[in-house]
Amino acid sequence: MLKKICLFSLIIFFAKSSFSQITIDTSNLPVSGTAYETGIDTMPLISIGIADINAQVWDFRNLSADKTDSISFSNPTSTVYGSNFPSADMAVAINLGFTDAIGYLIKDLSGLYSIGLGMDLSGFGISGIDTIIGLANPTEQIFTSPMTLGTTLLDTGRYYAVIDKNLGDGCDTTFAHYTTKIITADAWGTLITCSGNFNILRVYESTIIVDSLYIEVPPLCILGPISLELFRDTTYRYWYMTDSSIYKYPLVFVTTDANDSISRSVEFIRKLFDTCLIVSIHKTELINTNAKIYPNPANETVILHFENHAKRKYSLKIHNVLGRQIFEDNMEAFNQPVIKRKYDVSAFHEGIYLFRLMDDAGIKQQSGYFVIIR
Fold this sequence. Notes:
Layout: H1 7-16, E1 35-41, E2 56-59, E3 67-74, E4 90-95, E5 100-108, E6 111-120, E7 131-144, E8 152-163, E9 173-193, E10 196-216, E11 225-242, E12 252-256, E13 263-269, E14 292-294, E15 301-307, E16 314-320, E17 325-330, E18 338-344, E19 351-359, E20 364-372
Parallel strand pairs: 2-9
Antiparallel strand pairs: 1-3, 1-13, 3-4, 4-5, 5-6, 6-7, 7-8, 8-9, 9-10, 10-11, 11-12, 12-13, 14-15, 15-18, 16-17, 16-19, 19-20
């Protein structure tokens, strides 16, 4: 167990510690059995530093867990979709917001790769869609090895998920998830946590995400699909990685905006900060709100209808079928027993959309789906 830092040892650290650049390779990446509890600070007050060849110090001891989560890498053969990915070295649970999925990874001396994912949509009652198996072709490279200051990775990944037989007419509908990323090791130095100091290689990741829908139209579906772009976004993250043999996962993830002016959220390994963080835990019971969105199918507008027995604050989140959140409405508390809210969906592309209604404690109260047809 790492010793807790006291004021005296912190002074000694700055006075005598010598910084050294580190190399991250596959020995520092997850293996089957790697698992950590994580905290998420949704309003972080930290300085992420700059891209620089000189050593830096990142003091993240004021991080607090507004939300808690976990990350766990397991043997793929013990997972529900493992038979679809016989070459996988490990599997990892992924929370997509509206449902859980399992991602499948391979690792070799050149890095870490994603080869696909599986998810269960049976609870949404979408006709003909119970399970989606997304196959990566080509595979998505998540990390390149070895990585030192200045190392850069350019990668394009594609995931295809076929929705079997569109209403029995012999034609398929395919969802495609494309990623184009740039990853570069842009800074190095020391990360100060509540449980000790770590040599760090900071890795910057910029990823363009495009979700598309390919529809084969009967009766001539053999001629090829119609292509519709459902969603496009760019994400920006910093990974703070250590060469410590204890941790095989980034100690901290920071999500920012395009200009690094706002740290949108920080995810971190909780055990490193549990001596100084404040964890916010909400307890609430699941209440049936009988939420629904209509008309379904819809065209230009939809109405959310739900019962407000608990008089809580609620939020509505809408995702496309591959899990990307495209809309959110954070509502104030209502006194009315029944709530109806109208939304303009004219900017949504044709396709299937999943929704979830959350209460102010972050507990899912209802989920479902609706379809946009024009």
